[in-house]
């Protein structure tokens, strides 16, 4: 049963540091990483993992960042990289020098590479630095990145399908319509042996029934998760064409993401837009993807692809190629905050993935959770990322 989140989860809370002006003498005092483990209601209560980074200055200002480290071993590895590798490079530095520090961290990982665990760690540190800078200058992150071009951004209600209990799935999507969402997405499944993309007849039947349940005025996206399902190009062409009557806004990851040439062949043969990029790590990877000609909607995750700074650089590339982008932010409230700011700064931003039900990392981790209204998320004017982390909840979900 769908429950529409409301303001009962918390009004926006103005931190005591709002509007505070900081001088050039401010220095980083501590850098700590916090791996969190939590049951995810949107993944049938399976355990999922993120890692937070907390940066504090010598005058007590605190910034928070997040990465979608996803597994217990990678979350613990992020903690080791941040505290043993990055912290010594950051202590005593001025946190307002975000881009210089970002490049300093990238220079550190030349041997083990700016992808994987290193990218997770840089993403969380970078996000925390932007949060700190915004709080120090009394400005929201989108203002630091240029300016907000919009006061609210589209929230895309995103869930995993239950491919066995299709009635449950259909009730979810009907509920999203009742809650006011304007764009909805589903993919994968409740069990590894029953996932979307593996049974043609069932997939077509589900998409047809979802379209009937949400009506014609709501955009629908489906996620094939091509890294696992691995459609061939001929099969993908057939599926795209058979899905056409149901007017999908785009189909996400229809092919193995590393096969750029296959995406280009597919795009040349179909009308429905292709979304991919969620599994890229940095500007070089996104440049290869975009220049391959196989993508319409570029997907990014600020908790993965080198943080807010990394995403901002990719956005400029997307704008130059007249493409659009969406933010994969299916983890915690800090990542959602970063995504809202990154969507706000460009007319090419479409929407952000959004968990439609209450969940620990969205509604417990912060005192002022994100709440969609009429299908949108507000671009908050509070300094920094615009959310207040509850450190008691960090301690509750932290694991070692």
Task: Describe the structure concisely.
The chain is an alpha/beta fold and 400 residues long. Helix content is 39%, strand content 19%.
Question: What do you see in this structure?
Answer:
- It is a single chain.
- This protein has 400 residues and is of the alpha/beta class.
- It has two domains: 28-138 and 391-397, 2-Layer Sandwich (Enolase-like, domain 1); 143-378, TIM Barrel.
- The chain is 39% helix and 19% strand.
- The chain contains 14 helices and twelve strands.
- The chain has helices spanning 72-90, 98-108, 116-137, 141-144, 166-178, 200-214, 226-229, 233-243, 260-267, 283-292, 307-320, 333-344, 360-364, 391-397; strands spanning 28-40, 46-57, 62-67, 152-160, 183-187, 219-223, 248-252, 273-276, 297-300, 324-327, 349-354, 376-378.
- It has an eight-stranded parallel beta barrel. A three-stranded antiparallel sheet has the order 1-2-3.
- Strand 5, helix 6 and strand 6 (219-223) form a beta-alpha-beta unit.
- Helix 1 (72-90) crosses helix 2.
- The chain is globular, with a radius of gyration of 20 Å.
- It starts with 27 loop residues before the first strand and ends with a helix.
- The relative contact order is 0.16.
